[in-house]
Amino acid sequence: MTTVTVSPKFQVVIPKKVRKNLNLYPGQKIQVLSYKGRIEFIPLRSPREMRGLLKGIDTSVSRDNDRP
Hints:
about 15% helix
C-alpha cells in the first residue's frame, strides 16, 4: 500500500505505479467521489476507449413470467 500526503493546498500526487496501472496522463479528467468515509478517484474515459469493455458479458437474464 502506498501512502500520499495532502499538501496545504489539498493536493495529492498519484504515485507513478498507480498512474502506470491506470494509464493516466497529464490533463486527464478524473471524477472524485466521497463514499463510505473514503475518497475514490475514477478516471473518465472516452467512448472510444470504452469500446469492447463488455465483450463476452453474459446477457442472459431470467425474466418474470409476465414479461415477454
